[in-house]
Amino acid sequence: MNPIYDFTGQVVLITGAGSGMGLAAARAFAASGAAVALADIDENAIDAATRDLTDAGHQALALVCDVSDEDQAAAAVDRAVETFGRLDMAYNNAGIMPPPTDAADESSDQFDRVQAINLRGIWAAMKHELRHMRNQGSGAIVNCSSLGGLVGNPGRAAYHASKHGVIGLTKSAALEYGPRGIRVNAVCPGTISTPMVDGMVAGGELDRAEAEAGQAIDRLGTADEIAQAVLWLSSPGAGYVTGIALPVDGGHTAQ
Ligand code: NAD
User: Fold this and answer.
1) How close is the Cα of 140 to the center of ligand 1, in Å?
2) Number of domains, the chain
3) Ligand 1 center from residue 164 Cα (angstroms)
């Protein structure tokens, strides 16, 4: 993909950067000149992703981090700042999709785990990013919600609750930090071809042909297409954009 932004001299932290959309965003930010801190719970994935970027001449740092543990999220943010000297942008993207469950049968353990990663994990990362950004008086944060933050879906109540919550966090932080020079937005991907969705297809949870036919643009999205939306939201081109939940979903939520 051709870089169209210039983030030279800037630093971005990405959670869930070992796979899918987080990895695509890490590559796109690096190609646009940013130093990239890649955080993920999967040590092998994050090491490999970071090595590929440094081998290609980019500045990259691997951070093993479980975002559901606030101390680990805080340590990852602090290490990124210690290493690169500042924090200009963050893409809080780490998340999981639990198996579909009848709402009446869902265990409290599954519900809690989904909220701990998808919602509290974004809260924790954003909280500690804001601590640095408010001292700088500048910053741009993008939180990963989902089309599941905008609509419901049978069998997916816990996931959709977590993704609706991300939008509430995003809007409130945007209002709080706009006057202090920090923009906070959410991206709402539709059905995107990543290892997460590949796993759902392989497990019989999602019919790919049906999913493709359900979009106005009748294919699945790509991780690069989400990365480009994240880069735009992080860029000066979106300088007057804050508190939005941007669908990048092939028209799904227009129906
Ligand atoms: P993916 O499974 O390919 O990548 C997710 C990454 O997050 C993995 O590298 C995983 O190791 C990491 N991760 C999981 N739990 C973690 C934790 N506790 N701490 C740190 N890292 C953790 O998935 P993806 O499709 O790229 O999804 C990225 C985000 O996009 C998720 O928040 C997901 O809910 C959201 N999303 C995905 C889709 C889709 O269609 N793929 C649609 C809407 C939203």
Assistant:
1) 20
2) 1
3) 16
Helix (H/G/I), strand (E/B), else coil: 42: coil
Residue 222 belongs to a domain: no
Residue corresponding to tokens 């990124």: 80
CA angle 29, 34, 39 (to 5 degrees): 70
pLDDT of residue 159: 98
Q: State in Å: Cα 197 to ligand 1 middle.
A: 10
| Closest ligand 1 atom, residue 163 Cα | 34
Let me know if residue 112 belongs to a domain: yes
Establish how many alpha carbons lie within 13 A of residue 164's alpha carbon, considering only the half-sphere containing its beta carbon: 10
Radius of gyration (C-alpha) of the chain in whole angstroms: 17
Task: Give the domain extent around 140.
Answer: 11-190+227-246
Given pLDDT bands bounded at 50, 70 and 90, which one contains residue 3? low
Ligand 1, atom 19, residue with closest C-alpha: 66
Question: Mean pLDDT, to the nearest integer, of 121-139?
Answer: 98
CATH of the domain at 146: 3.40.50.720
Among the options 5, 159, 177, 240, which is catalytic?
Answer: 159
Of the candidates 95, 20, 14, 94, the one whose C-alpha atom is nearest the C-alpha of residue 61 is 14
Q: What is the pLDDT of residue 110?
A: 98
Which residues is 36 bridged to in the sheet?
A: 12, 60
Task: Assess if residue 206 is contained within a domain.
Answer: no
Please tell me the distance from the alpha carbon of residue 85 to that of residue 243, in angstroms, as a whole number. Answer: 27
Q: Is residue 214 domain-resident? A: no
Rounded to an integer, what distance in angstroms lies between the CA atom of residue 174 and that of residue 182? 7
Identify whether 159 is a catalytic site residue.
yes
